[in-house]
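Sequence in, structure out.
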Amino acid sequence: MHNGYIQIKNKPIEVYMQELKEQCNGGLVKYGNIVDENMLIENFKQNAIPIEVFDMTMDDYEEFLEMRRRLMADKIRRFYESL
């Protein structure tokens, strides 16, 4: 079992995302157990992470937060409506 938190440390998001893409395409497994793109996309959906994060840098952090807030609100709304 890998400890992704230790591996990530202070890496820039663009470096981390590139390494994660490589991991999903048969590269070295550094971060958790996600080893294919479908698993990664599903994980992002479950955790309200916008897929656009692959094209973001730290300069896009505020935009990332806005997108994530919308995804989280939608997830909460869908759950509430399912009750």
